[in-house]
Amino acid sequence: MNAIRRFNPVLAAVLVVTSVQAAFADETVTFDDGPLGWSISGCSNVVIDGGNPGANLTCIVDDVFGAEIRSSTDQAFVGDLTRYGAVTISIDVKINSIAIGGGPQQVPRRFALDLRDYNDTGPYPWTSVWYELGIVSSSQPGWIRYAVTIEDPFATALPAGWSGSGAEDATGMPRLPRDRTFASVLRSVDEIAFTTLLPGYFFPSTRFDMQVDNIHVGDPLDEPCPTCAADHNQDGGVDGADVEAFFLDWQDSIPCADANRDGGVDGGDVEAFFLAWQTGGC
Predict the structure, then answer these.
(1) SS3 of residue 215 by DSSP
(2) Domain total in the chain
(3) Helix, strand or coil, per DSSP, at residue 164
(4) Total-model pTM
Protein backbone atom coordinates (compact mmCIF):
# COMPACT_ATOMS: atom_id res chain seq x y z
CA MET A 1 0.00 0.00 0.00
CA ASN A 2 1.39 3.39 -0.99
CA ALA A 3 1.73 5.68 2.04
CA ILE A 4 2.05 8.85 -0.08
CA ARG A 5 -1.36 9.58 -1.58
CA ARG A 6 -0.83 13.10 -2.89
CA PHE A 7 1.75 14.54 -5.24
CA ASN A 8 4.02 16.93 -3.37
CA PRO A 9 6.01 19.05 -5.88
CA VAL A 10 8.51 20.26 -3.27
CA LEU A 11 9.27 16.73 -2.08
CA ALA A 12 9.49 15.50 -5.66
CA ALA A 13 11.99 18.23 -6.54
CA VAL A 14 14.16 17.33 -3.55
CA LEU A 15 14.13 13.66 -4.49
CA VAL A 16 15.08 14.42 -8.09
CA VAL A 17 17.97 16.69 -7.12
CA THR A 18 19.22 14.16 -4.57
CA SER A 19 19.10 11.30 -7.04
CA VAL A 20 20.96 13.30 -9.69
CA GLN A 21 23.72 14.49 -7.37
CA ALA A 22 24.27 11.33 -5.35
CA ALA A 23 22.98 8.33 -7.28
CA PHE A 24 24.19 5.05 -5.85
CA ALA A 25 27.13 3.67 -7.82
CA ASP A 26 27.85 -0.04 -7.72
CA GLU A 27 28.54 -1.70 -11.05
CA THR A 28 31.21 -4.30 -11.82
CA VAL A 29 31.85 -5.72 -15.28
CA THR A 30 33.09 -9.30 -14.71
CA PHE A 31 32.71 -10.41 -18.37
CA ASP A 32 30.74 -13.47 -17.27
CA ASP A 33 28.01 -12.24 -19.65
CA GLY A 34 30.30 -11.23 -22.50
CA PRO A 35 32.12 -7.97 -23.38
CA LEU A 36 29.08 -5.74 -22.71
CA GLY A 37 30.42 -2.97 -24.93
CA TRP A 38 34.02 -3.12 -23.71
CA SER A 39 37.08 -3.83 -25.83
CA ILE A 40 40.86 -3.76 -25.78
CA SER A 41 41.65 -1.43 -28.69
CA GLY A 42 38.61 -2.76 -30.57
CA CYS A 43 39.18 -6.43 -29.68
CA SER A 44 36.31 -7.86 -27.60
CA ASN A 45 37.47 -11.45 -27.06
CA VAL A 46 36.15 -12.94 -23.80
CA VAL A 47 37.38 -16.26 -22.38
CA ILE A 48 35.54 -18.14 -19.65
CA ASP A 49 38.48 -18.79 -17.32
CA GLY A 50 41.83 -17.33 -16.27
CA GLY A 51 40.28 -14.12 -14.96
CA ASN A 52 40.23 -12.65 -11.48
CA PRO A 53 38.41 -14.99 -11.12
CA GLY A 54 36.42 -16.59 -13.95
CA ALA A 55 35.79 -14.92 -17.30
CA ASN A 56 37.90 -12.03 -18.56
CA LEU A 57 38.51 -9.82 -21.57
CA THR A 58 41.78 -10.90 -23.20
CA CYS A 59 43.48 -9.80 -26.40
CA ILE A 60 46.79 -9.57 -28.21
CA VAL A 61 47.02 -6.16 -29.85
CA ASP A 62 49.90 -6.02 -32.30
CA ASP A 63 51.79 -3.17 -33.95
CA VAL A 64 50.12 -0.34 -32.02
CA PHE A 65 51.41 2.76 -30.25
CA GLY A 66 49.36 1.93 -27.16
CA ALA A 67 46.51 -0.19 -25.83
CA GLU A 68 43.14 1.00 -24.54
CA ILE A 69 40.39 -0.71 -22.58
CA ARG A 70 37.39 1.39 -23.51
CA SER A 71 33.62 1.69 -23.76
CA SER A 72 31.21 4.29 -25.08
CA THR A 73 28.05 2.27 -24.43
CA ASP A 74 28.21 0.98 -20.84
CA GLN A 75 25.79 3.44 -19.25
CA ALA A 76 27.23 3.00 -15.74
CA PHE A 77 30.52 4.55 -16.92
CA VAL A 78 29.41 7.27 -19.35
CA GLY A 79 27.04 10.21 -19.36
CA ASP A 80 26.84 12.56 -16.39
CA LEU A 81 29.27 11.04 -13.88
CA THR A 82 28.57 13.83 -11.39
CA ARG A 83 25.33 11.96 -10.70
CA TYR A 84 27.25 9.67 -8.37
CA GLY A 85 28.83 12.29 -6.16
CA ALA A 86 32.16 10.99 -4.82
CA VAL A 87 32.98 7.83 -6.76
CA THR A 88 35.73 5.26 -7.26
CA ILE A 89 36.58 3.79 -10.66
CA SER A 90 38.84 0.73 -10.83
CA ILE A 91 40.05 -2.06 -13.11
CA ASP A 92 41.98 -5.32 -12.71
CA VAL A 93 44.74 -5.88 -15.29
CA LYS A 94 47.16 -8.73 -15.97
CA ILE A 95 50.00 -8.08 -18.40
CA ASN A 96 51.43 -11.14 -20.13
CA SER A 97 53.68 -9.18 -22.47
CA ILE A 98 54.43 -5.66 -23.69
CA ALA A 99 57.06 -6.08 -26.40
CA ILE A 100 58.58 -3.51 -28.73
CA GLY A 101 58.07 -4.47 -32.36
CA GLY A 102 56.75 -7.87 -31.34
CA GLY A 103 60.26 -8.92 -30.29
CA PRO A 104 61.54 -10.25 -26.96
CA GLN A 105 62.30 -6.88 -25.34
CA GLN A 106 59.76 -6.18 -22.59
CA VAL A 107 58.89 -2.60 -21.66
CA PRO A 108 56.70 -0.95 -19.02
CA ARG A 109 54.05 1.57 -19.96
CA ARG A 110 52.32 4.36 -18.05
CA PHE A 111 48.61 3.69 -17.53
CA ALA A 112 45.84 6.25 -17.18
CA LEU A 113 42.10 6.68 -16.87
CA ASP A 114 40.83 9.03 -19.60
CA LEU A 115 37.25 10.40 -19.47
CA ARG A 116 36.36 11.80 -22.91
CA ASP A 117 33.81 14.28 -24.23
CA TYR A 118 33.53 14.29 -28.04
CA ASN A 119 31.33 17.39 -28.28
CA ASP A 120 34.14 19.95 -28.56
CA THR A 121 35.99 20.71 -31.80
CA GLY A 122 39.65 21.72 -31.82
CA PRO A 123 43.13 20.32 -32.34
CA TYR A 124 42.17 17.16 -30.42
CA PRO A 125 39.39 14.72 -31.35
CA TRP A 126 37.98 15.02 -27.84
CA THR A 127 38.21 16.98 -24.61
CA SER A 128 39.11 14.89 -21.61
CA VAL A 129 40.28 14.77 -18.04
CA TRP A 130 42.76 12.02 -17.24
CA TYR A 131 44.53 10.53 -14.25
CA GLU A 132 47.72 8.47 -14.31
CA LEU A 133 46.98 5.24 -12.41
CA GLY A 134 50.45 3.71 -12.41
CA ILE A 135 52.62 1.41 -14.50
CA VAL A 136 51.64 -1.71 -16.43
CA SER A 137 54.40 -4.25 -17.03
CA SER A 138 54.89 -7.96 -17.61
CA SER A 139 57.29 -7.97 -14.63
CA GLN A 140 54.37 -7.39 -12.26
CA PRO A 141 53.08 -10.59 -10.61
CA GLY A 142 49.59 -11.62 -11.66
CA TRP A 143 46.58 -9.37 -11.42
CA ILE A 144 46.91 -5.73 -10.33
CA ARG A 145 44.02 -3.45 -9.40
CA TYR A 146 44.27 0.19 -10.49
CA ALA A 147 41.85 2.68 -8.98
CA VAL A 148 41.14 6.36 -8.52
CA THR A 149 38.57 8.09 -6.32
CA ILE A 150 36.95 11.30 -7.53
CA GLU A 151 36.25 13.08 -4.26
CA ASP A 152 34.53 16.16 -5.70
CA PRO A 153 33.08 15.71 -9.21
CA PHE A 154 31.71 19.28 -9.06
CA ALA A 155 35.19 20.85 -8.84
CA THR A 156 36.00 23.44 -11.48
CA ALA A 157 39.79 23.21 -11.19
CA LEU A 158 41.58 19.95 -11.94
CA PRO A 159 42.06 17.99 -8.69
CA ALA A 160 45.56 16.91 -7.65
CA GLY A 161 46.93 14.29 -10.00
CA TRP A 162 44.46 15.05 -12.82
CA SER A 163 45.35 16.56 -16.19
CA GLY A 164 43.29 17.75 -19.15
CA SER A 165 43.35 17.61 -22.94
CA GLY A 166 41.44 19.21 -25.79
CA ALA A 167 43.68 22.22 -26.35
CA GLU A 168 47.40 22.95 -26.21
CA ASP A 169 49.58 25.29 -24.18
CA ALA A 170 52.42 27.41 -25.56
CA THR A 171 54.79 24.43 -25.54
CA GLY A 172 52.37 22.19 -27.46
CA MET A 173 51.39 20.07 -24.45
CA PRO A 174 47.72 19.22 -23.93
CA ARG A 175 45.50 21.15 -21.54
CA LEU A 176 41.78 21.71 -21.04
CA PRO A 177 40.18 24.31 -23.31
CA ARG A 178 39.79 27.61 -21.44
CA ASP A 179 36.00 27.33 -21.38
CA ARG A 180 35.99 23.82 -19.87
CA THR A 181 36.30 22.65 -16.27
CA PHE A 182 36.81 19.31 -14.54
CA ALA A 183 33.10 19.20 -13.67
CA SER A 184 31.92 20.12 -17.18
CA VAL A 185 33.80 17.18 -18.68
CA LEU A 186 32.46 14.79 -16.04
CA ARG A 187 28.93 15.93 -16.88
CA SER A 188 29.36 14.84 -20.50
CA VAL A 189 31.48 11.67 -20.71
CA ASP A 190 31.02 10.01 -24.11
CA GLU A 191 33.75 7.40 -23.65
CA ILE A 192 35.79 5.95 -20.81
CA ALA A 193 39.25 4.57 -21.56
CA PHE A 194 41.95 2.94 -19.48
CA THR A 195 44.89 3.68 -21.72
CA THR A 196 48.65 3.67 -22.26
CA LEU A 197 48.16 6.45 -24.83
CA LEU A 198 48.71 9.40 -22.52
CA PRO A 199 47.81 12.75 -24.15
CA GLY A 200 50.90 14.54 -25.41
CA TYR A 201 53.21 11.50 -25.33
CA PHE A 202 54.34 9.17 -28.10
CA PHE A 203 55.72 5.63 -27.86
CA PRO A 204 57.11 3.26 -30.52
CA SER A 205 55.03 0.46 -32.02
CA THR A 206 54.38 -2.26 -29.45
CA ARG A 207 52.67 -5.64 -29.06
CA PHE A 208 50.37 -5.95 -26.04
CA ASP A 209 49.19 -9.28 -24.60
CA MET A 210 46.85 -8.42 -21.73
CA GLN A 211 43.84 -9.54 -19.70
CA VAL A 212 41.19 -7.36 -18.05
CA ASP A 213 38.59 -8.06 -15.36
CA ASN A 214 36.34 -6.41 -12.75
CA ILE A 215 35.89 -2.94 -14.23
CA HIS A 216 34.14 -1.17 -11.37
CA VAL A 217 32.38 2.07 -10.58
CA GLY A 218 31.19 2.46 -7.01
CA ASP A 219 30.89 4.40 -3.81
CA PRO A 220 34.38 5.05 -2.35
CA LEU A 221 33.43 2.85 0.62
CA ASP A 222 33.27 -0.08 -1.81
CA GLU A 223 37.00 0.23 -2.53
CA PRO A 224 38.80 0.25 0.84
CA CYS A 225 41.50 -2.22 -0.16
CA PRO A 226 45.00 -1.30 -1.36
CA THR A 227 45.33 -0.86 -5.11
CA CYS A 228 48.97 -1.98 -4.82
CA ALA A 229 49.21 -5.41 -3.18
CA ALA A 230 52.72 -4.76 -1.83
CA ASP A 231 51.80 -1.43 -0.17
CA HIS A 232 49.21 -3.07 2.06
CA ASN A 233 49.07 -0.22 4.60
CA GLN A 234 48.74 2.30 1.74
CA ASP A 235 51.39 4.68 3.05
CA GLY A 236 53.11 5.09 -0.32
CA GLY A 237 56.08 2.83 0.45
CA VAL A 238 56.87 -0.88 0.52
CA ASP A 239 58.55 -2.05 3.72
CA GLY A 240 58.18 -4.25 6.81
CA ALA A 241 55.13 -2.35 8.00
CA ASP A 242 53.23 -3.72 5.00
CA VAL A 243 54.05 -7.30 6.05
CA GLU A 244 52.66 -6.66 9.52
CA ALA A 245 49.53 -4.95 8.13
CA PHE A 246 48.94 -7.78 5.67
CA PHE A 247 49.20 -10.55 8.26
CA LEU A 248 46.88 -8.73 10.67
CA ASP A 249 44.22 -8.70 7.93
CA TRP A 250 45.07 -12.23 6.74
CA GLN A 251 44.72 -13.77 10.22
CA ASP A 252 41.24 -12.23 10.56
CA SER A 253 40.25 -13.19 6.97
CA ILE A 254 39.70 -9.53 6.08
CA PRO A 255 38.73 -9.31 2.37
CA CYS A 256 41.60 -6.90 1.69
CA ALA A 257 44.02 -9.79 2.40
CA ASP A 258 42.79 -11.50 -0.78
CA ALA A 259 46.05 -10.61 -2.53
CA ASN A 260 45.55 -12.99 -5.44
CA ARG A 261 41.95 -11.77 -5.98
CA ASP A 262 40.46 -15.27 -6.14
CA GLY A 263 37.56 -14.46 -3.84
CA GLY A 264 38.94 -16.10 -0.67
CA VAL A 265 41.61 -15.53 1.98
CA ASP A 266 44.00 -18.48 2.27
CA GLY A 267 47.62 -19.57 1.82
CA GLY A 268 47.64 -18.53 -1.83
CA ASP A 269 47.30 -14.92 -0.73
CA VAL A 270 50.46 -15.13 1.37
CA GLU A 271 52.41 -16.27 -1.68
CA ALA A 272 50.86 -13.58 -3.88
CA PHE A 273 51.55 -10.86 -1.31
CA PHE A 274 55.23 -11.80 -0.90
CA LEU A 275 55.77 -12.03 -4.66
CA ALA A 276 54.55 -8.45 -4.94
CA TRP A 277 56.36 -7.30 -1.80
CA GLN A 278 59.73 -8.75 -2.83
CA THR A 279 59.63 -6.85 -6.14
CA GLY A 280 59.21 -3.64 -4.15
CA GLY A 281 56.15 -2.50 -6.03
CA CYS A 282 52.93 -3.41 -7.82
Answers:
(1) strand
(2) 2
(3) strand
(4) 0.74
